[in-house]
Amino acid sequence: MFRTIVVGTNWSGTADVAFAKALELARSGGAALHVVTAHDPSPAPVVGGPASPAAGPDFQADVALERTLERLGAPDFLVRLHTATAEPGQAILQVAEDVDADLIVVGNRGMHRRVLGSIPNTVSHRASCDVLIVQTA
Amino acid sequence: MFSSIVVGTDGSETADRALTRALEMARLTGARLLVVSAYAPTAARVTGGAPATEAAEWSVGPDFEVEGVLNRAMVRARSEGVEIEARAPKGDPADAILAVAAESGADLIVLGSRGMQGARRVLGSVPNKVSHRAPCDVLIVQTG
Questions:
Q1: Would you tell me how many other CB atoms lie within 10 Å of the CB of residue A18?
Q2: N or C: which end of chain B has fewer CB within 10 A?
Q3: From A122, which residue of chain B is nearest by alpha-carbon distance?
Q4: pLDDT for residue B61
């Protein structure tokens, strides 16, 4: 049904719920899974922090993905990690376009409970493919 | 993954794509399907009428149309071996779909990305409202 699935995550417990669903959909349908994790560049960078913002977060994302996959069970299909320094909603949409995704999976929650988060809101309004908003609260 | 799927349709060609996806999801997960047709008829169908109020829209015999839409969906689902039921609630489509989902304990709502009058690539008001208030997962099928 779906051949290329993109899932956004910040590696939180609630994001894991969406991740697990994307993984299950990819497995049952034999789809490729692209995992997107993004750091919003808008907050002021820490002075004296790492020169390349990609270096630290990239490594962490690798480890986080490995741990998440371990916890959810090793996949037998392609999982590819994409890291971006961008607003997460934009990053997810960009990866979806780049890999010609036919499904984007995102969690429904932002920082505030009971309100659709800004990321799923951005993605659902602007995606050019199907969007699964997973109830993670 | 899913055991009870609610899909909204207005019988349009674009809504049929959402139904197709919902049938695929049902087959993939073994879920039962609940098809809901609650989309209010457009004002244009009220020939020569005054600006349509909600009551007026629903007074021109939409039951008959809705029944046809639901019957077609049910015939299609059964031909594909998917267990299906139909609901034809009246009123605001988003509210009706949310109510059916809550009552039936659905774990997924499937909707097209736009309504009949929606512009391309703009999320329709029904999927927008449902995605903000749903008690369960929502799959928005790109139908633009």
A1: 25
A2: C
A3: B123
A4: 45
